[in-house]
Amino acid sequence: DAGVIQSPRHEVTEMGQEVTLRCKPISGHNSLFWYRQTMMRGLELLIYFNNNVPIDDSGMPEDRFSAKMPNASFSTLKIQPSEPRDSAVYFCASSLGDLSYNEQFFGPGTRLTVL
Amino acid sequence: KNQVEQSPQSLIILEGKNCTLQCNYTVSPFSNLRWYKQDTGRGPVSLTIMTFSENTKSNGRYTATLDADTKQSSLHITASQLSDSASYICVVTLYSGGGADGLTFGKGTHLIIQP
After folding, report:
1. I need a labelling partner for B91 at 20 to 30 A (CA). Which of A8, A98, B26, B31 fits?
2. Closest CA in chain B for residue A50
3. pLDDT of B25-50, one tens digit each?
4. Is the per-residue pLDDT at A51 higher than 60?
5. pLDDT of A28-45, one tens digit each?
6. What percentage of chain A reaches a pLDDT higher than 70?
7. Cβ B49–A56 below 8 Å, yes or no?
8. Long-range contacts of A41-45 (CB under 8 A, 24+ apart)
9. Per-residue confidence (pLDDT) for residue B56, from 0 to 100
């Protein structure tokens, strides 16, 4: 299996622009997670989906952030408009099962820089 | 407030030596505790997952211990190798298992193995 696939790997954009990050989970996994990692705050869970349904998005920082999972093999995280403080590494992870006791497999991450 | 504190923040040891990383948490009620290894520029990789009823779990040269009474966990690395140089992150899951509050992350321990 190719593992969790994320694109792009690097994104540099200007403040105010829309940014879309993409994720393909491991085939057969039914949970998908979006994380953000910064030096100051460490890893943070933004949102997670189970069977394509958003279970809890309380980790999403603001209305500027939105996530969708139109099918079992694809998810997007969108930031509109982007701000410099959104600069971080964004990880997508997937697992077979829910949050409770299932190993999560992380993608390589997207490094976002907002100028 | 649910918190996960890791120590030390950083550690440098010589190749071949053993080391122990600490994780103290206040998360309650507790479901499980995970240790991740994160190489520079890559996504975290799961090392161990333990429920409250498990005291020890091993993964090769990595051994995690858990004391649910004192809310402490440790990760012991035996006969360290250069490839062990990475950040090690402790993550604790709430018993309910749901929502962004369901996961509480430590800031990690940055380990450097010197030849």
Report:
1. A8
2. B98
3. 998 877 889 999 999 999 999 999 99
4. yes
5. 999 999 999 999 889 999
6. 97
7. no
8. A42/B89, A42/B105, A42/B106, A42/B107, A42/B108, A43/A91, A43/B44, A43/B89, A43/B91, A43/B105, A44/B100, A44/B105, A45/B100, A45/B102, A45/B103, A45/B105
9. 96
Residue whose entry in the numeric block shows the structure tokens 């090769």: B60
Which residues in chain B are closer than 8 Å to A56, comparing Cβ atoms?
98-100, 102
Scanning B44-103 for CB atoms below 8 A from A yields 44-46, 49, 51, 89, 91, 93, 97-103
Taking CA atoms, what residue in B is nearest to A61? Answer: B100
Q: How long is chain A?
A: 115
Chain B residue at shortest CA distance from A102:
B49
